[in-house]
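[recover] target loaded
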C-alpha cells in the first residue's frame, strides 16, 4: 500500500515525511488497501479517480467495500481536510452528498460514486423525463441544504460539483462550504441559475431538452425565493419545471 501511495503523492512533490503522515492516517483509520483505478493518469504513471487544486481522489478498500479516498495534496492551499469532512457530515444529515465514513486531517473516506459529471450526462442523455428528474432532485437537495443553512458556495459551477450515478445526482466537494446555522437561499438560486437560467453548455442543453424558451418565470420565482425562502415557493418552482 505504501509504495502505491508514494507513487501517487510523488506526483505532487510530496516528501517522505508527508507520505509517512498520510500512510499512518490510512492505517489508523482502517483502510485495508488502496486501488489503482480511474480515468486520470498522473505523470508518475498511476491511475486515480480525480484530482483538484487541493486534493487527489483514489479508490480504496475500507471495511471490506470499495470507497473513495480523498487525500490532501502536499502543495494544497488548505491546511487540512477537517472542515470539508465536517461540512459533508452536516450535508449527510439531510441526505445530500456522498456518505462520509471516516476522516483524519489529511484524508476523507466516503462513498464511491461511479458516475459522470453532469455536463457529460446532459450531452449524452436527451431523455426529457430523465433530465427533468435530475433537475427536480437537485432542487430538493439544494432546498434541504438551504433549510439547514449549509451553503455549498460552488453550485454556480455544476459541471465540477455534480456527479450523476444511475440517473441520481450527487453534490460533491464541500471544501468551500459554509455552515450558517440559519436558513439561506443561495444553494437553490445558484443551482437553478446554473442549470436553467444561465448561458453555460449545461443550461443551454437542459433548456433545449425541456423545451424552455422563456426563463423569466423561473427568474421571477427565484426572486420570490430569495426574499422569502419558503417551501411554498419551492413547490411553485417544482410545479413549473414538472409541467414544462
Amino acid at each position: 500500500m505504501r509504495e502505491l501511495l508514494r507513487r501517487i503523492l510523488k506526483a505532487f512533490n510530496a516528501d517522505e515525511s508527508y507520505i509517512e503522515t498520510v500512510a499512518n492516517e490510512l492505517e489508523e483509520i482502517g483502510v485495508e488497501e488502496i486501488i489503482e483505478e480511474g480515468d486520470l493518469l498522473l505523470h508518475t504513471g498511476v491511475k486515480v479517480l480525480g484530482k483538484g487544486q487541493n486534493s487527489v481522489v483514489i479508490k480504496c478498500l475500507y471495511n471490506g467495500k470499495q470507497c473513495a479516498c480523498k487525500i490532501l495534496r502536499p502543495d494544497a492551499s488548505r491546511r487540512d481536510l477537517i472542515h470539508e469532512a465536517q461540512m459533508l457530515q452536516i450535508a449527510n444529515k439531510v441526505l445530500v452528498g456522498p456518505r462520509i465514513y471516516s476522516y483524519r486531517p489529511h484524508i476523507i473516506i466516503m462513498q464511491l460514486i461511479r458516475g459522470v459529471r453532469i455536463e457529460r450526462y446532459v450531452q449524452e442523455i436527451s431523455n426529457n423525463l430523465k433530465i427533468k428528474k435530475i433537475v427536480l432532485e437537485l432542487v430538493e437537495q439544494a432546498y434541504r441544504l438551504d433549510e439547514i443553512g449549509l451553503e455549498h458556495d460552488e453550485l454556480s459551477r455544476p459541471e465540477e460539483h455534480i456527479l450523476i450515478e444511475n440517473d441520481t445526482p450527487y453534490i460533491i466537494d464541500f471544501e468551500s462550504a459554509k455552515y450558517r446555522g440559519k436558513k439561506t437561499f443561495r444553494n437553490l438560486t445558484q443551482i437553478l441559475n446554473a442549470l436553467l437560467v444561465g448561458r453555460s453548455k449545461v443550461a443551454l442543453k437542459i433548456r433545449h431538452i425541456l423545451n424552455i424558451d422563456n426563463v423569466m418565470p423561473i427568474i421571477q420565482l427565484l426572486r420570490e425565493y430569495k426574499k422569502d425562502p419558503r417551501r411554498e415557493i419551492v413547490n411553485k418552482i417544482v410545479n413549473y419545471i414538472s409541467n414544462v
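[recover] notes: The chain has two domains: 2-110, 116-243.
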